[in-house]
Design brief:
Layout: H1 2-21, H2 35-49, E1 53-56, E2 65-70, E3 75-80, E4 102-103, H3 106-111, H4 117-126, H5 132-137, E5 146-150, E6 156-160, H6 166-173, H7 185-189, H8 191-201, E7 206-207, H9 209-231, H10 251-263, E8 265-268, H11 276-291, E9 296-300, H12 305-315, E10 320-322, H13 327-336, E11 341-345, H14 346-359, E12 363-366, H15 378-383, E13 390-394, H16 403-413, H17 421-428, E14 429-431, E15 437-440, H18 443-449, E16 454-455, E17 469-476, H19 480-503, H20 508-526, H21 529-532, H22 540-551, E18 559-562, H23 566-578, E19 582-586, H24 592-604, E20 608-613, E21 628-631, H25 638-645, E22 657-664, H26 668-676, H27 680-683, H28 699-713, E23 759-760, E24 763-764, H29 810-828, H30 831-841, E25 842-844, E26 851-853, H31 860-878
Parallel strand pairs: 5-7, 8-13, 8-16, 9-11, 9-12, 10-11, 12-13, 17-22, 18-20, 18-21, 19-20, 21-22
Antiparallel strand pairs: 1-2, 2-3, 3-4, 5-6, 14-15, 23-24, 25-26
């Protein structure tokens, strides 16, 4: 008896061991198992082992419709069981009924196996029912016939025939379906008639919901393409494009617009600088006019929101709204806004995906789409929840590091365009003995598969169409910390503007404060680091890194980067060090003898990709080896800007050049760009370091300057930041900086850097009360790939100790006096200037007609001191 029990126990152990050995590895394909069988067995395991709740919601005991509830994800799926096991490949017509298990999950629709874990779980549960195994074994099948979508070879409409009236349906099917049961073209065109005739044979004849969706989608595509072909018979040559946008399009851009509108869902992958944005806007406008779309949702990086807004308003008459603020405010904008274009950041999209889906946009435009290359990120997952009939995906780098990048992007356009990922990688990857990826194969097949949904042109392919020089203004929003400081400075300027309007006079101290505030507004529009050298709040650097990422893909591409502020270029140098990109760095501290070596290295060293420079390198440099220039900020004097551009756009330049000028949205930079358009009067004003003396300018020039400042303010300086709102769901930031103490004496003249007013002694006071934020920019909740830890990249160059200016020496006073008399003599030598001087200091009383000498002074004490000095001088002369 004991031996018998031992024998039975041994058999049980062997049985359990055998069962354990049959478990399929998720990470590695068994050597003796084919790829498809491995994937099917994995799904069988998942379905049988996971705790799914399966409920029969149909009318039949076995071959019925089921609901599968997943407690862990809290999602429910609809499964329809029509056969015991899914068959692989095509089947003869006489067993047409033996295919057809379906599920509405994404894995089932894309894996091309006819099986998923939900179907596996359902079959596992159904097999436990009485009579189920016999039904499957004896080849029983559903009673009711119907059509469904077979995803195993791409989505196709397919027929299954039930046991009721089998012979009748076999005869009827020959008119509409092929031998494998797939719907033929006549049936596709007359699908409603197919369903109606089937229901005359069997009133319960079923048609899956996704079958109707597939018919509608394909019919719309054919209709749209026919409409575009009729409207644009000459393609890109059609006169229709003359009035599509308020600009002249290049031929290749027209071709891109035609391609996008015909495809409906496509990937615009042109090389950087070829105008993907304007092509997307043009295609959207064409769809609005001809296909009647009502709303476009644009998802882009935070730094590009206002760039999109600017270009839409520039090239179209369409309404546009940038969605910002807390979620309650955003919800109201989604529900109430009637704008044709809605623009949101990736972070906002990730938080509001369900709301955006319910909004029901017709077209989704996804810019810088390489951000969704990682399947597992929140951004990648959430963006797929937004379902729209049309979708344009924009990226200049669709394939950055590996094939999975391209696969992830294409999945958003058409999840059926490429094979399932396991087949895709097996087909196109080359692996070494240790499993490492050592190369790729069959790549031309990928291009053929994507030929109708991907368009990519390189600059060298369209070089003859491009102008020799293309200038682009890139609008970049400021972070909230920048906005706060900018607003404080703008308030100070507003008080001085109000004082000028009232008295038409500003003292020397007020003028110094005005100059300082305006300069600091420009600085903080770049980065808070320029002001305090401790905090890092900026978006221009991040956007520059995106430009690097896309442009430096080409081995022969070199880039020149300019900034007026040496501290700004220092930040860029730190970022280039972090990503190990070679660069040459020119600033005011580089000796003249060393400059030629920098130029030679940039020109001849293939590893030196970037030339960083302040305006110290704005003249005298020949940098024709670069064809792309980025100006992180724009000098007020247009001549200085042209001097920068002249470093690469000059004789000897063999390539077309692209100039990108970064401008912070809703800042002093944008106001100058928009209102004054770099008027030459500012080049002669106090903001030009090469211009006249900033303090002792003539009253007429200062009056002209103040008029420019008033024009710059528009309806008030407080309007500067009225339309700038923080995206509180995106940015985490420390407490706001305290209002700086304005001290006009704290002016530094080192590479045009000016310290903020709160600098005292040798050390700048931090503008943050949160110690953890020092030297680090708070990063958004997503975009981790681009957001590096700025604490690790705080520039190491020490700040220059600042000394309060010493009292003017006697020699300085003498020089000032000499300058005064020299200027006075020059004025009096000209009758016109003499008359202007007289008119400026003489005033006539309107009531009495009496003429007075009018000399503006700072206060009464100044006059009293001058009178005493004059009295003493006269008394001395009398003696």
């Amino acid at each position: 008896m004991a031996r018998s029990e031992h024998s039975e126990k041994k058999k049980t152990v062997k049985k359990n061991k055998k069962k354990k050995d049959l478990r399929v590895s998720f990470h590695k394909q068994p050597e003796a198992m084919q790829l498809e069988m491995w994937q099917m067995n994995l799904r069988r395991q998942f379905g049988e082992e996971q705790d799914f709740q399966v409920t029969n919601v149909g009318s039949e005991p076995v071959f019925s419709e089921y609901q599968v509830w997943n407690p862990s994800s809290r999602n429910a799926y609809q499964v329809h069981i029509r056969t015991a096991l899914p068959k692989k490949g095509l089947v003869p017509s006489n067993t047409l009924y033996s295919v057809g298990n379906t599920c509405n999950c994404q894995d089932f629709k894309t894996n091309r196996l006819g099986l998923c874990k939900h179907i596996s779980a359902t079959l596992h549960q159904v097999n436990k029912q009485r009579g189920a195994k016999k039904a499957f074994k004896d080849g029983f099948r559903p009673i009711i016939s119907g059509v469904y979508v077979d995803y195993r070879q791409g989505p196709k409409i397919r027929l299954y025939i039930g046991s009721e009236q089998e012979m009748v349906f076999n005869q009827w099917a020959a008119s509409w379906f092929d031998e494998q049961g797939f719907l033929q073209t006549p049936g596709f065109v007359q699908f409603e008639e197919v369903i109606a005739s089937a229901r005359t044979l069997q009133t319960e004849f079923q048609c899956a919901a996704d079958a109707f969706d597939l018919i509608v989608e394909q019919r719309e595509r054919l209709s749209r393409q026919a409409r575009i072909d009729q409207l644009l018979p000459a393609g890109a040559q059609s006169a229709y494009f003359d009035s599509l946008l308020k600009t002249t399009l290049f031929h290749y851009q027209k071709t891109g617009i035609v391609f996008a509108t015909r495809a409906g869902r496509c990937l615009l992958a042109d090389e950087m600088g070829l105008g993907k944005t304007i092509q997307a806007i043009g295609a959207a406008e064409l769809l609005r006019r001809e296909m009647g779309i009502q709303k476009v949702l644009i998802v882009c990086p935070t730094s590009l929101k206002y760039q999109w807004k600017s270009e839409i308003e520039k090239f179209t008459d369409a309404t546009v709204l940038v969605v910002e603020g807390i979620q309650t405010k955003r919800i109201a904008q989604y529900e109430k806004s009637e704008a044709f274009f809605l623009i949101v950041s990736y972070n906002t999209m990730a938080n509001d995906a369900d709301l955006l889906h319910k909004m029901g946009a017709d077209l989704l435009i996804l810019d810088e789409a390489q951000r969704i290359k990682n399947f597992r990120t929140k951004v990648s997952i959430q963006v797929k929840r937004i379902q729209t009939p049309y979708c344009f995906v924009l990226t200049g780098t669709p394939l950055e590091n590996k094939l999975e990048d391209l696969y992830a992007v294409v999945q958003l356009i058409d999840q059926h365009k490429l094979p399932p990922l396991y087949r895709f990688l097996d087909r196109y990857q080359i692996k070494g003995d240790n499993g490492q990826i050592v190369g790729y194969k069959n790549l031309k097949e990928i291009g053929e598969l994507l030929s109708d949904c991907l368009i990519r042109r390189l600059k060298k392919e369209v070089l003859t169409e491009l102008p020799k020089r293309m200038d682009k203004v890139l609008m970049v929003p400021m972070m909230q910390q920048q906005v706060d400081i900018h607003r404080e400075l703008a308030d100070a300027v507003a008080r001085l503007v109000a004082k000028w309007r009232k008295y038409h006079f500003l003292s020397e101290k007020d003028r110094r404060i005005l100059i300082l505030c305006l300069s600091q507004m420009r600085m903080v529009a770049d980065s808070t680091y320029i002001l305090d050298q401790q905090t890092r709040f900026d978006t221009k650097i991040d956007e520059l890194l995106c430009i690097f990422e896309e442009a430096l893909v080409h081995d022969d591409q070199k880039i020149v980067v300019f900034s007026q502020w040496e501290r700004m270029t220092r930040l860029v140098a730190q970022e280039l060090d972090a990503v190990e990109v070679g660069y040459a760095y020119l600033h005011g501290g580089v000796a003249s003898a060393d400059r030629e070596d920098l130029i030679t290295r940039f020109r001849e060293d293939p590893d030196c990709r970037v030339f960083l420079s302040t305006d110290a390198g704005g003249v005298g440099l020949n940098l024709q080896s670069a064809s792309l220039m980025v100006n992180l900020d724009i000098p007020w004097n247009p001549a200085i800007l042209e001097q920068r551009i002249g470093r690469i756009y000059r004789l000897g330049q063999a390539e077309n050049v692209t100039i990108i000028n970064m401008v912070s949205a809703s800042s002093i930079e944008e106001r100058m760009l928009d209102i004054l358009v770099f008027k030459s009067s500012l080049a002669q004003g106090i903001l030009d370091p090469e211009g006249d003396d900033t303090i002792f300018m003539s009253e007429s020039k200062f009056k002209k300057f103040m008029e420019n400042v008033e024009n710059l303010a528009g309806n008030g300086w407080e309007a500067f930041d009225a339309d700038v709102t923080a995206e509180t769901d995106e940015l985490e930031h420390p407490d706001h900086a305290a209002e700086p103490e304005l001290n006009a004496e704290k002016i530094q003249d080192k590479d045009s850097d000016v310290l903020p007013p709160n600098v005292k002694g040798d050390k700048a006071e931090t503008t943050s009360r949160n110690p953890s934020s020092i030297g680090r920019k708070p990063k958004p909740t997503v975009d981790e790939e681009r957001q590096a830890d700025i604490a690790k990249r705080t520039p190491s160059k020490p700040s220059t100790p600042q000394q309060a200016p010493a009292p003017e020496s006697p020699q300085a006073l003498i020089r000032s006096g000499v300058n005064f008399f020299s200027g006075l003599a020059q004025t009096l030598s000209s009758p016109e200037k003499t008359q202007e001087l007289v008119q400026s200091i003489v005033q006539t009383d309107a009531e009495t007609g009496q003429t007075y000498l009018k000399i503006p002074v700072e206060n009464a004490a100044v006059v009293e001191n001058a009178v005493k000095l004059l009295g003493g001088l006269l008394a001395g002369l009398g003696r």
